[in-house]
Amino acid sequence: MPVLWGVSFDATAMSGVVVEFLKTAKLFSDRGCRVHLDLGYDIKADKGRFFQRYQQESCPDWVTLDRVDGIAQIAGYDQEFVAATLEAVRNGQPPDTDRVTAELADAIVRTWEDRGVTLVMVENGTLPENVAYTKALYKAIAAYGTRHSLGRYVLWRDHDLMWQSEPDKYGSFPYVSTPPMVNSPHIHYFALHEEARRRTMEWMPQLRNLAVLPNTFAPPDRPARPDFREHYGIPRQARIVARCTRIIPQKRIDRDLHLLAQLRDTCLFVAGDTEEDPEETRRLRALAEELGVPVVFGGVLEPCESAGDGFSVRDLLAHADVVSFLTSYDYESYGNPIGEAIAAGVPYIASRYALYDTVYAGFEAPVLDILVHDLPTREFAEQTHELMTNRERRAEVVAHNQRLGTHNREAANDLVSTLFPPAMGENVRLSVVLPVYNEAANIDDVLLSLHNQDDIDPDMYEIVVVDNNSTDDTVARARRFAERSKADVHVISEREQGVACARRTGMEFAARRSRNREAPGERFYLVSADADCQVDPRWLTELHAAMERDKAAIGVCDYYYNAEHFVGRPRLWDAIDRTLRCRAVTFALFGGFPDGKGFAVERQAYEDVGGIEIFYQLQHGRFVNHLSDDWDFGIKVRGSGHDITYVPRSKVEINPRRVNHALDEVIAGRAYGNDGIIVMRDIRPEAPPKTADLTEAEALQAWEFSIKDFTPKNTILPVLLTPSLLDDDAVVAFFGEDLAARLGARIAEIKDEMRVVDFLAIHSYKTPAYRLYFEFRDEIFARLRAEVGEDIGYPPPLPECFDEVPEDRFAEFVKYYCEDRESGEAHNYFGNGGVF
């Protein structure tokens, strides 16, 4: 069983930091992880708990409170040492911690070995509370990760970095003696928001693997106690302003008291430790008496996640009319009580502290501008009163905030699941990767087709849905499907827009996880599927069988259109049908190239060539990712000497909307991608769908674009990348001995002329493939007519620019023309990017 070890630098039984740890740790607990949590009593010196035994701390029953074995026996390591070390850091005097650090690191590693730790979560480890322990963690992480080959097994999250913490305690940032964050192969770093990420990168510009992981909004998982009001003596008719906070001056609870003075029939409930700062508690009680407002100091409530018998924050929120967070301007960065309110469906009010707009952009609430008004204004009080008493307005605000909060929570959960993926089932041999973007109309049918596969055990494959920033209910539908699926279905996310980025993320997710259950001689396959195309019932069975039989690096499916979708459009269907017939012949000869609609790649081959590479192009002055990652990946595999096999019995039905999407451009004489730019476009169904057939001229235009796109890529490119194919008997029979020999000789000449030794880059294969097409087009079309049918016809007309080119200089000017990296003309001529 995997084991998660959490360590908090907060030294508090149930702080906001610990609560957020529990929310994240629950994701791992739900996967079967045992969760151990070190509350940090042995780390932080100023909370009065150093080496204190765990006694009354309330945690969920799935958490084991734990600590590092033998730490109290390290000579010189005690509360005084930690306090003196922090003072040295504040004064810019690097403390001598080497011996203690080394012994701490050894103790941590021994403890992790004893518990069988496989994952680690560090909360607030960069904060200079205890630099000896921070350094020890880095040493332990490196030693333990290397020993067990764990890869990135550490989630290191900083809630309170130096620029957003207490300057009275830590002094001025930066601190010379603070341990720098290290680029470790074992650590994923997380900041709470973009501003924290930006400031972190200013401090540590060389840092890699830093993502944004905001605190999450977990909805209640148990009902509230109905006797809360009665227990605390709050009248049933009184409204409640809830304040969950430490009772210290920085929290500015006095603002809540002044607000109450402007509200009727309202009580303030303060959930916090009245003994932490007794003087502040006395001051607040006196102010409440002076203002004549009712206040309940309810003490420390159990956390929302607690399953104990005592009253919890959830109970308070269930009875509260509004949650208040009127804190100091420079004290808070996140404001965990706001998140709890959003999750519980309670409206909140807040002060505009330094990072409020960074963290809660888009959420709705009355916000007090404390740089202008130190205390609540009449207008602010009226807004608060309306929020508590106007049911319609309250419901609107709650619904809006919960929608936004749910989206943020799911995004955070997807990020954690992507970077720290769950273990793969021991019988899984194939991972089907499905990128999705706003596919709510199709996702159920597509997932059902992937799920209902004949003659293959559901335990043998899994489905990885990669959400690419959907704004409809695609993800919700995928999650509902996952709950009832016999096969494992994972939903992860990719924030960079583009199907290539999403496909790569899914492939990497599956590849990483597949390594934990390798057996000698076992092959594992990454399979691509498309969110708008349905697969046949034997799609996966046939693909897997062929890959096992042929031991190829890539297996390419057969793709087809349903002819019923083109009834009444015979000219269009004829152009499509001819293209598909040509493809069947050439794929059978050369294996073809992968198409995102359906292909499989053996994982080791995938990793050997570096996986899917994302290419970028300039469009209108900005970089955009190139769409044809599937073809480019196939070129990398083929160019690296790996085999590709064509699996005609593994079939994928193409959504006809793809044709309608490209048709207008094709008829107008433009390619799917213009001027060398091929980018993702929105091709969801038009309303109403197109049903008119093409004219004869339009049908000719469509066919010529299709065959020009098809021929260089499917009859020339394979032998350009793998000239040894020209020694294959079937290939020689297709071309004829004379043409095969001349084609091979010309390929050698062009390679030597261009000094091309590597055909992996996006454009490096286009120029020679285009040139060979022009030089051999008549002969190749003759062979296609012979093999496929006379209706294939003859090559489309040459561009007009060749009309005045002398015959003896034709090949020379073809070279200039085909340098589409400069002009894009050849790209437009060939319709690169696909038509049918």
UniProtKB/TrEMBL annotation:
<protein>
    <submittedName>
        <fullName>Glycosyltransferase</fullName>
    </submittedName>
</protein>
<dbReference type="InterPro" id="IPR050834">
    <property type="entry name" value="Glycosyltransf_2"/>
</dbReference>
<keyword id="KW-0808">Transferase</keyword>
<dbReference type="Pfam" id="PF00535">
    <property type="entry name" value="Glycos_transf_2"/>
</dbReference>
<dbReference type="GO" id="GO:0016740">
    <property type="term" value="F:transferase activity"/>
</dbReference>
<feature type="domain" description="Glycosyltransferase 2-like">
    <location>
        <begin position="431"/>
        <end position="580"/>
    </location>
</feature>
<dbReference type="Pfam" id="PF13692">
    <property type="entry name" value="Glyco_trans_1_4"/>
</dbReference>
<dbReference type="InterPro" id="IPR001173">
    <property type="entry name" value="Glyco_trans_2-like"/>
</dbReference>
<dbReference type="InterPro" id="IPR029044">
    <property type="entry name" value="Nucleotide-diphossugar_trans"/>
</dbReference>
